[in-house]
Design a protein that fits this description.
single chain; alpha+beta; Nuclear Transport Factor 2, Chain: A; five-stranded antiparallel sheet; two-stranded parallel sheet; 4 helices; 34% helix
Length: 139
């Protein structure tokens, strides 16, 4: 009986809390993701001379793809995750949304560069943290 109790205690003390912590990790709602994307794109392409940008649907929920934020004077084309490899396009792509303390961080970039952007929600509104690039990423 003692042999079966020890593994049970191990599972209860070490495995269950870790599994519970993974299941309770904060998740960003689709509406909040959409708003963060909207702010990021508006700031990133505010002074852009590009007429059309291509954005991969990788890491974008279907709900966001259906009502993707519009950009002033720039046409946005959503492309499947497989398109960049087969077409030679330099496609922009969002990384996963991650909680870091009280901030939400998301990577965004294309075939030439990628950076991580931080956002915070105060008084119910999302704001960029000065669009500070926290780290360089490679795609």
């Amino acid at each position: 009986m003692k042999r079966s109790v020890l593994p049970g205690i191990f599972v209860i003390l070490f495995c269950l809390p870790a599994a519970f912590a993974q299941n309770t990790a904060p998740q960003l709602s689709t509406a909040d993701q959409r708003r963060v994307i909207e702010i990021l794109l508006a700031n990133k392409f505010e002074r852009s001379t590009e007429k059309t940008i291509y954005i991969s649907t990788a890491n974008l929920p279907k709900e966001i793809q259906k009502t993707f934020p519009r950009l002033k004077n720039i046409k946005v084309r959503l492309v499947s995750a497989e398109t960049p490899n087969s077409s030679g396009l330099c496609v922009y792509e969002f990384g996963r949304f991650e909680f870091i303390d009280k901030f939400v961080s998301v990577a965004f970039g294309n075939c030439r560069e990628g950076l991580a952007y931080d956002f915070i929600k105060t008084n119910g509104e999302w704001k960029s943290v000065g669009l500070v690039m926290t780290r360089q990423i490679s795609y």
